[in-house]
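Researcher: Let's run the pair from yesterday's discussion. Sequence first, then tokens, for each.
Model: Starting with the first of the pair.
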Amino acid sequence: MKIKIFKHNPLFKNKLLLIFKQYPEIFFDGDLKTIKRRLGQVFEPIYPKFYAEIDGQPVGFISYFKRDSSEIWFLSWFAVDKFWQNQGIGKKLMAYVEKQIAKSPISRICIETVWADNEVVRKTNAFYEKCGYQRVGLIPDYYGKQGSKAFYYKDLGTVKLSKKDK
């Protein structure tokens, strides 16, 4: 199985949206409307977007952005098709984005995500921790009954780039 990473192709918008819809515990209705709109955009330099592909089919997606005056990157809209989970796709997407970010003068990443007592959210947050992110904050009941908002943080200042990645 060969996993390839590509810049976002808006032709895959509907297929990628189906991946996000598999996770109602994490991506709420408002998120899905925003995701649908942004997936249809061809070029949006403030939101680099990438997808993982296996045999010509998108199986995962990740994007990141920097708020205007902040000195930190924010990871957003990260999902892997449930059928393809636990096969290294999420790690490969995360590593790809981290290498892109490590090339910039800003090496810090923040992930804002749901914190709730359900299996999907627990697995997602455990994944971030396995990737070296630390939970640094929590806003209780931020999403009402759906859960709290957690903040994960990582400083890529220690990531070593190979010559081909620079």
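Model: Moving on to the second of the pair.
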Amino acid sequence: MVEYLAGAARYTTGNLVFGANLSSVNYRPGVNSLFTNTATFDTAGLVATWQATPAWFFGASYSYTRERAANGIGNPARYHQLSLEQTYALSKRTTLYVLEAYQRAGGLTLGKAGIGNPVNAVAVVGDSQNGTPSSNGSQSVMMFGIRHIF
């Protein structure tokens, strides 16, 4: 069972937008769970964007996530992530973009064996890298693309 509480705020002034968000997610163990206590992850984030010209758009964000101590882990997982975006509009419907992200993980989390077998937390940047976690505590990702709106 998953329970979550989240909130966000945004402030716009001219071509600048600033935002902040907070969330808390509780994972409660089920019948087939590898953990016995509720695992809670708290996240705080900041974001800023700038529409520099009609063609150029820039964005930056930072988030910090920490797991609360549970399931016998005294040094729970924590994650720092920095993301950047640069976008150039070729036309109203077509843009080129570059996205960069870096995540640093620390602490311990449950491994596949469950309770009593904590492992070092590893970095996994966003959904695009869901199947490829880092083999250590840090991961960098860079993506280039063309976006066309039909």
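Researcher: Give me one sentence on the second I can quote.
Model: The first strand starts at residue 2 and ends at 13.
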